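Quick log. Single chain, no ligands specified.
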Amino acid sequence: MKKLILLSIISLVVVFSSCKKDRFDEPKAPEKMEELTVPAGFDWKTTKDFSVTLSAYTNGIVEVTNSAGVVYQKAFLSTGQPYTMKLTVPSYETTIRLKFMGKTQDIALSSSNISYQFVAQ
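-> predicted structure:
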């Protein structure tokens, strides 16, 4: 009987001590847009625009994709004629992938004007 009483007291102590709530003073979330603290240089844009100029050694279709293979644009390239496209991508993208004549090329999105020339191999 003593063991049962001792065991039930220990159980009650464990149960009540584990039910304490951790209390943290969290900052209050802003309720209105005017209450947000936003850096002066933040532009709120979710996309970036690029001018991409492509030229090729032969006629063919080029695909502009992201690294996961999602196609942004397709274009027909003619021999010796540069093709310029306006490309709009999500702002988190850092590279694009060009697919032409069975070959792929990754291009860094480091400038707003990008030029690439496909060469025969």
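Residues 2-18 form the longest helix (17 residues).
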